Each structure stands twice: as C-alpha cells, then as structure tokens.
Amino acid sequence: MATRKPAVDAVICGFGATGALVAEALTAQGLRVVALERGSMLTTAGDFAPAIQMDELRFQQRHGLMVQPAQSTQTFRYNSQAEALPMRDIGAWQIGTGVGGSATHWAGQAFRLMPDEFRLRSHLTARYGADLFPDDMTSQDWAVSYDELEPFYDRYEKLLGVSGQAGNLRGTIIPGGNPLEGPRSDHYPNPPLLRMKSTDLFDRTAKSLGLHPYPCAAAQASRPYTNPLGVRMGACTYCGFCSGFGCGNYSKSSPQTTILPVVMQRDGFELRVRSVVTRILTDNLGKHATGVEYVDASGETFEQPADMVFVCSFTLANSHLLLVSGIGEAYDPATGKGTVGRNYAFQLWGASDFLLAGQTFDPWIGAGGLGQIIDDYDCDNFDHRAVPGKPFVGGGYIGLFQYGNQPIGTLAPGSGKDAMWGSALKRKMADTYAGALQVQAMGANQSYKDCYLSLDPTYKDPYGRPLLRVTYDIKDNDRLMSRFLVDQCERIAKAMGGTILDRIDRASPFDTTQFQTTHNSGGTAASATPDKGVVNKFGQTWSTPNVFVYGASQFPQTPGRNPTMTVGATTLLGLDAVVKTYVKSPGAMVPA
Amino acid sequence: MFRLLGLSIGLVGLRPFAAFALQPHKRVGDTTPRFFTADERAFVTAAVDRLIPADAQGPGGVAAEVPRFIDFQLAGAWGRGDDRYVSGPVGKGPPTLGNQSVTSRADFYRASIAALRALPEGRAFAGADPAARDAFLTALQKGEHDTDQLKGSAFFAALLEDSVSGFLADPSYGGNAGFVGWALIGYPGVRYDWTPYLRNDGRKLDMPIVGTYGPSDNYGLD
User: Fold this and answer.
1) Cα distances (Å, whole numbers) of residue A291 to A1, A26, A308
2) Which domains does chain A have, with CATH numbers?
3) What letter would DSSP give residue B95?
4) pLDDT digits (tens, 9 = 90+) for A449-485
5) What pTM did the predictor assign?
6) Least CA distance to B182: which residue of chain A?
7) I need a labelling partner for A286 at 20 to 30 A (CA). Which of A313, A424, B25, B70 fits?
8) Which is nearest to A107 in space by CA: A220, A250, A20?
9) What value of ipTM does the predicted structure carry?
10) Nearest CA to CA, how far is A186 from chain B (Å)?
11) B90 has a chain A CB within 8 A of its CB
C-alpha cells in the first residue's frame, strides 16, 4: 500500500531542462510544486568541480552522468514483425540522469530551427509536390509556427546566456551572423565564443565555396553574465570538457547554472531525488490524473496527489510513462490508430574525418559550442530537385566544431578484424591526434508509419514494468539525405586541404552500438488535431487535460539541428499558457 | 639582516620540498593484483607488450602499466558489469543490436584466457618471443581461434580497446604511468583555463603534462 503524501498543485516527473522551467514558472505564481527525479542531486560545486569532471575515462568512456541500462533501457528491433532485443549497454545515445538530466552533459549547441521547418510538409509539398513524400512517411507540420515560438526562443537564450552573432535582426541582415536564419527580435545576450585556427580555416574555405558560414550559437557564456532570474555565470575557459561532462566553471548552461539557484529557494517547492515515478494515477474514467505513484531509494512506494502532472523526463521516458499509465491511446501501426509512441525519429549525424598532416590544431582546447556552421544544406535552403539522384525530404547543418578532443575517444582503435595495433597504431596515434579535424552534418530524420515506440512484451525494468520498445530503421529517403550531406562534408574537408580518414554516414541496419547523438524525438508529438499527436501546442495532452508533456518527445520529426533550444522554447510557450489560462480555468486549452 | 635571514629561512624551508621534487622519478604505486591471477596477469602483460610495444617512438603499454589499469578496471563496477542490463532471456541478433551476452567483462577475460591457455601456443604465449606473440595475436584477431566456447576475435578487440584506454586515461586509474601515452600524442593534460592559448595556432607548448591530480602521475596509488 502506497504511503500518501500531502496533495500539491503540481508534480513534475523528471527534473532536467524542462522540469526546471516548469518549477520556475509555477512557483513564481505561488503554486506548491513537488519535483521527482530518478537520479541523484548534482551540484556545480559538489559534483562538477574541474578536478572531478576533467576525467575522460569516468565520464565520456564509462558514462558517469548517464542513466545505466541496469536502471533503464530500451529494447530495439528493425521492423514490427521482429522480436526486439534489449540494449544491454549504452550505445547510440547517452541519456543523462540526476538533477539537470541530459542538460548537464550536453555540448551546448544552441540552435533555433528555421521558419520553414515548422511547416515542413506543407512548404515542401507546395514547392515540390506531394510526391516528394513517400507513402509511409508521417512527417507533418508542427503545431506551432516560428513566429509564435520566437519570443520564447529569445527568452530561453537569455535565460541560458547564449553566446552568438545575430544574422537577421527583425528582417535586417547583419554581417557575420547567419543570413539564412529566421528573423530574431533581439541579439544574443552574449557575443560569440572566441574562434580558433580550425574554425577559421573552415570559415575561409566555406566562403571560398560560396557558402555562408557563421559562428555556432553556444550555451557557454563568452563573458561574465547575469541572466533574467539574477543567476550569474562565469566566462568560459575553453577547458575542452563539455559534451559528456558537467561544467565546474558556471559557464555552460544547465539547470544548475541558470535556474536552480533561484527555484531551490522558492517557497512551495520541494525536490525529491532518487524517486522514480512508476505511473501516473487517474480517476475512474481515466480522463483526469489524480497524481503519480513513485518509489524512493529505500524501495518504498508513495502516492503524490497533484492537480497537474508534468511529464518532463527524457524523450523516450516520456512515451514510456504515458504508455505504462494508459494515458492516451497507444499507437498501432497496423491500423494507424492511437498516437502515443507515433512519430519516433532519431538524428542522422554524419561526418567526414580528415587529416592535415603536420599541422597542430591544439585539439585539447575547445568548448561544445565553439564552431562555424553553414545552413546552406538545411531545410529548403537548397533545391531538393537539384541533388544527385532522387530528391529527398530533409537536410541539416554542416559545421566544424572545436570541442576539445579527449584522447581515448579520439584515438579509439576500432574493433574490426583489421584494426591497427603495435607500432603502427602508436604511429597513427602520434600522427593524427593534433592534426585531425572533422566536418560534421546534423542530419534530419523523418517519421514513418512503422518507426514507433511501444511496450515490450518480454523484457522488464527493475520496477516490473515493460521496457520501452523502439521499432526503427533508416529508410531510403533518409539514407539518401545522409549520403548527400556527408558528400558535402567531404567536399569541404578536401577543400580545406585534408586527406580523408573516415566517412560516417547512415544506412540500414541502424547501428545501436555506436554513439551518434542523444537526439531522440517524437512519441508524444504536439499536433494541431488529436489524430496527429498526443499533446496540443501547449504540451497539454488531448486525452487528459491535466497531464502535460514537455521535451523533444513533442517534435513530429527530427529537424537537421540540435533540439535543446526548441525544447526550451516550446516548454516556455506551453507554460505561458498554463500560467495565463489553465491555472485560472482548468480544462482543455485547445478544443479537440 | 632580519629580512635576509627571513628570506634565507624561507628558502631553507622550501628546500626539502624542492629536493624531493627533483629526485629521479621512482614509481612505487599499488601493484597488488585486484582481479588477475599470476597466469592471467602474465598473459595480459605479454599481449599489451605487443599491442602497444616499446619502440623507437617511446615507451609502450607495459611501461605505462596498462596491465595494472586493466586489472583495476576488471575488479571494479565496470568489470563486473554492474551498469549493464542483464535481465530477461538472452536472445540472438545482429552485432548492430549490441552485445546480448550477460557475461561480465571480467568473466569474459577470465574465460577467454583460460580457453586460450588450454591451447599449446596459448600456454606458451606469455614466455614467447615477440614474433611468436605477434603471430598468435594476429591469428586471434582474425578469428582463427574462434570456437563456440571462445570468442577469440572479440577478446582481442576487448584487449586492444582496454589497452588503448589504459595508455591514454588519466593516470589515477593506474595506467598512463609517467604520462607516456599523453606524451606520445602531444596531449598536455587537463587544464582548467586555456583562454590565453586560443590563438596558440599549433605552436609547441612549453608546459608540463598534468592529470586530474596535477603533475604527479601516481596519485592515490601509493
């Protein structure tokens, strides 16, 4: 029998990027909020100090900040007829755990999406005709437009202290920025990060090819900064430990460095860590949530009653919690009915690795967002009919980042039967570490009828719940896109004077074992009508109006850009409506 | 005079520390085996000695104490596989769906070394000359010792992966002794603030290598 806790206005399931925004918005209104986080408390001073974090083996190689498969994993299969197998090790993606979630270990690449991205299907159909879309592709227009989202992008950039160069300020093109971006209402709060020899070389080469390079917007503060909540950040020191690590310098944006110092002090807020939400509880009719059930570190089960339930876990866990709780209708690819788990997609990251022999790029220096980018091959910035071979839906940015390359990950020997070893391996390590660069593409990924999330019939988690089952593979359209983007990467790499070392593009079968990105999306898509998604544009579930879902699980397909800023902006847009409308008059905010 | 005396005392006060720091480096460290038996340790050491050999380029994996690194790693949570999902039926699938085995890394090493040592050339491996060891490792890598009971090529891949990790990891894990791995590739170590070097543009850095615990490479292991 679960111990019943005192009722609160809102309970938050998962305390990462979106959970922190929910807590801030609701406690500012004087509401009583409890956040439940499955992982541990993590603080900048206590857990992210440089002497702790600057340790590649512990964090990047052994995944020190990630949820362990023993605690939470997925099963995977390539089609809906196959039996799925569990992902027993961390592989293609790395999901954070603990306070801050994946927003503590992200690289900090702070992209907005382009205006066309939000009307992907209608725009591309108008320009190229409906034939561009294969029959089984379920990619759709977003529930929000760029113009609706813009004020919230702006607010989130200021909250996170993003460093960048505006390229389009209210319609005026500004030299040095991205001329292809959507109009911005304001500058970035901080100037771009400093540049390096590697990013300068990319910049010069891209310009010589007629492309439009600009500095990546980075969630590393380029100077001391105080955000609108009064939280202070320090200037980035380019230590090279961003992606996979927590920042000990209060420079990389995370909930810890931007929101928690304020929220943790608010009256009416309580955080309970090592508390795993096992299901959302509903009333007899199943149309109204009454709270959640959770298990704490001692194994005791509790009931937390609440008037509002906010599902703020990682993308995959959002769908999982709805499915095990029976919120909404599970998607069935055979009938097309149901929406929970529909429109799952990943991110088709690709790259060209190359060497400029004899050169040294100081690869130990860097920051996760220190890069030069081109958008010439994202969205509809290129003619999709003019590509070699068959036209495809999708695109992505291409760029060169100076992340700070850690030795083991950079020089991993490979596991093939022809992997190099002995003196030859030593020579290769010595010759390539300092002179190797990578041009990468953040490829979009479309949604398909038979790529979806559901509950596995065989494998269980430590709480006896079915594991989430991922049914997914890379389709022809997306394979063509990946090949096209990596071809462009190689073209730029060669123009930079590089000798190609490796080519990474995506083909079927999808490799679950090689880390790519953590950019999973969909499963609880936001939609204009209830037949196309799980939540309305405010993140409110169509089925259960006091349950809200935030995160990249709202994306109807994966754009060719990193998700975090859009996750934050869509959450802020939703919370704006919750505070202004729902709290005063609970009920569906968009008529079904 | 007092000032000079004070200065003099100050210098005297510093001398023992300076003298200590200038002593030739002698690594003591904890080499007590945590996982390997003597035979296993000898086998792994003989393999590491060829996977990352000492050669004209500099010291190899044995001087870097990579066998100790692997021993420590296998003895810990990672070697035990505490983080892995090991529930449910063990199914079979393509390699792209990941390692389905529920055997821990440590047990995989133990079983693989035992199976290899059951072969005549495996038993002789630890004492064999470099050419013979290279021949044995090549056969192992190419799958010539793969059987239903022994995943020889997978074991080779694990040995190689763990050797490189031990050669390049922070020395606090027991490998990369004397920072020899980092010295080979020109990695200056972990430093908190690189801001003054953003426009270093590849010029040679004149600074000692530092790990997470500073310029000492055997912190916490003595």
Assistant:
1) 15, 17, 7
2) 3-582 (3.50.50.60)
3) G
4) 999 999 999 999 999 999 999 999 999 999 999 999 9
5) 0.95
6) A407
7) A313
8) A220
9) 0.95
10) 28
11) no
